[in-house]
Amino acid sequence: MSDTASGRSPKRANGVREAEILDHLQQADTALTPGEVAERLGGELTYNSVVTILTRMHTKGLLTRSPRGRAYAYAPVTDDAGFAARRMHTVLEERPDREAVLARFADTLSATDAVLLRQLLAAEQDSDR
């Protein structure tokens, strides 16, 4: 019997589940326990599955955790823009020719984004002085 025929949600890739859980954590006003995350997911995942995903995300450095009762409560280490910046930095670190990667990236920016990047870099230079 398929997942949809059994009334369960279809299986999703781990990255999709992580993104979904991260979204719930970012929208929360406070850190959430696995039970609270499972509840926000509408029962799509078992408690143990949520614990596994949260633990994996904590190991990857995406979440912090602190004891709350008999469980941990999890919170994202940064906001959505921060995660995007971390991904960009990781890609840059993995390449041997940083100059070529940055040059290609700059070449693909829209005029508006190029102006914004120049403003941000100028502000950074001003704050270093």
Brief account:
It is built from 6 helices and 2 strands, in the order αααββααα. By secondary structure, it is mainly alpha-helical. A two-stranded antiparallel ribbon has the order 1-2.
Please tell me about this protein's structure.
By secondary structure, the chain is mainly alpha-helical. The protein has two domains: 14-76, Orthogonal Bundle (Arc Repressor Mutant, subunit A); 80-128. It is 60% helix and 9% strand. The protein has a two-stranded antiparallel sheet. Helix 2 packs across helix 3. The longest helix is centred in the C-terminal third of the chain and has 18 residues, at 111-128. The termini are far apart.
Please give the order of strands in the largest beta sheet: 1-2
What is the total domain count? 2
**Class of secondary structure makeup:** mainly alpha
SSE topology string: HHHEEHHH
Number of helices: 6
Please, what is the CATH homologous superfamily of the largest domain?
Answer: Winged helix-like DNA-binding domain superfamily/Winged helix DNA-binding domain
Q: Estimate percent helicity.
A: 55-70%
CATH architecture of the largest domain: Orthogonal Bundle
Write the layout of secondary structure elements.
Layout (H helix, E strand, L loop, with lengths): L13 H14 L6 H7 L6 H13 L3 E6 L2 E6 L3 H15 L3 H11 L2 H18 L1
Antiparallel strand pairs: 1-2
Helix pairs in contact: 2-3
Primary descriptors:
129 residues, mainly alpha, Arc Repressor Mutant, subunit A, two-stranded antiparallel ribbon, 2 strands, elongated
